[in-house]
């Protein structure tokens, strides 16, 4: 007997138990019920900020079998896969690009599952439901498109089979050595070329000479004063870039309480007083660099706080991968390697869909060439690259 499934679109996770949702999400911190609920309940990702939850859920009777995080959006802020040019082209042609449907983790350019279901059949039902929803809303309210950002490659391919167009991007990730990982930071440096190794040691010495030491805090260890200091740093970073911060103190406090085991807050201190901070999330396999800020300029402090301390943490805890965030070719010189990331897109307007599809084919070729160039500039010794 073929099971019958029901698709429900929900605007809140309140009606789904933490246990049922997290059974689908697994140990990815960005997919957990606690993370999405913190985003929504603190107003960071909400109707008021242009992130209206429209999560697609798949039910077999009263059992949750699948889910797709989905938002109805009226802008493209906080996404890290840039489609502003597409929106502008729509506007110049006399069409509306917004609202659009977006499957993503708000403000988080991290690769992970988006089709939260165990079987290919269930995942296909989720994609089909999202596309059907996009087409229906296009006719009803003018929704222009459906986008899925930073899925795993296997899910991106499944979306491509369903009629979506794939887009390629590049990030820089640090990988722990195979077969147990590095024994210590110097073992990692020993595999870099002489020039890269020398530069990193110089950067670290400068920070040390300033009397800076570091403290690693989990959510269990971080108190409200730690979080207030971090948020001051976070806000200052956004002000320095002439932009508005997406997240608030309430969100970070809630994150620390509801997901303490996934939090790594790195504090830089001088004379026991904090001067800078970086927030990371992690599970047993991956550390995700997220936000940083400093109250004063110290040469090399950014690289030490955001990268070298995080690498030290990965080595100490046998974490295999460190995703340092979006962009950042400067990471290459510090032991990070380029990796391909994915997004999938469907546009209702046939002429725009064809034009963007053609553009993405050319863009993918450029990405391939760029990846080749980056790999030629690997920071590792030649003999290490060939392993």
Automatic annotation (TrEMBL):
Any Pfam family: FemAB_like
Keywords, sorted A to Z: Transferase
Keyword Transit peptide annotated: no
Molecular-function annotations in GO: transferase activity
Name of this protein: GNAT family N-acetyltransferase
């Amino acid at each position: 007997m073929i099971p019958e499934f029901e698709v429900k679109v929900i605007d809140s996770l309140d009606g789904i138990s933490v246990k049922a949702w997290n059974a689908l999400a697994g140990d990815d911190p960005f997919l957990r019920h606690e993370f999405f609920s913190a985003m929504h309940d603190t107003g960071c990702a909400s109707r008021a900020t242009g992130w209206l939850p429209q999560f697609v859920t798949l039910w077999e009777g009263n059992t949750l079998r699948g889910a797709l995080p989905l938002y109805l959006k009226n802008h493209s802020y906080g996404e890290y896969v840039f489609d502003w040019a597409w929106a502008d082209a729509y506007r110049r042609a006399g069409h509306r690009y917004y609202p659009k449907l977006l499957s993503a983790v708000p403000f988080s350019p991290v690769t992970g599952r988006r089709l939260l279901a165990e079987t290919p059949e269930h995942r296909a039902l989720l994609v089909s439901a999202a596309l059907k929803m996009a087409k229906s809303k296009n006719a009803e309210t003018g929704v222009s498109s459906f986008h899925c950002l930073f899925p795993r490659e296997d899910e991106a391919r499944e979306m491509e089979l369903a009629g979506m167009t794939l887009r390629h991007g590049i990030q820089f990730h640090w990988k722990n050595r195979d077969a147990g990982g590095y024994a210590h930071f110097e073992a990692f440096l020993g595999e870099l070329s002489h020039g890269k190794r020398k530069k990193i040691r110089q950067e670290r010495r400068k920070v040390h000479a300033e009397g800076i030491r570091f403290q690693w805090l989990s959510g269990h260890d971080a108190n409200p004063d730690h979080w207030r200091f971090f948020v001051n740093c976070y806000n200052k970073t956004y002000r320095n870039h002439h932009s508005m911060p997406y997240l608030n103190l309430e969100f970070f406090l809630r994150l620390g309480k509801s997901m303490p085991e996934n939090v790594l807050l790195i504090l830089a201190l001088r004379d026991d007083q904090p001067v800078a901070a970086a927030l990371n999330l992690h599970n047993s396999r991956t550390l995700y660099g997220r936000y940083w800020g400093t109250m004063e300029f110290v040469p090399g402090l950014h690289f030490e706080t955001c990268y070298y301390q995080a690498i030290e943490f990965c080595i100490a805890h046998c974490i295999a991968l460190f995703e340092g965030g979006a962009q950042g070719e400067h990471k290459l010189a510090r032991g990070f390697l380029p990796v391909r990331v994915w997004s999938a897109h469907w546009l209702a307007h046939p002429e725009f869909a064809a034009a963007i599809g053609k553009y993405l084919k050319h863009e993918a070729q450029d990405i391939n060439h760029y990846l080749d160039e980056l790999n030629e500039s690997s920071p590792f010794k030649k003999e290490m690259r060939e392993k």
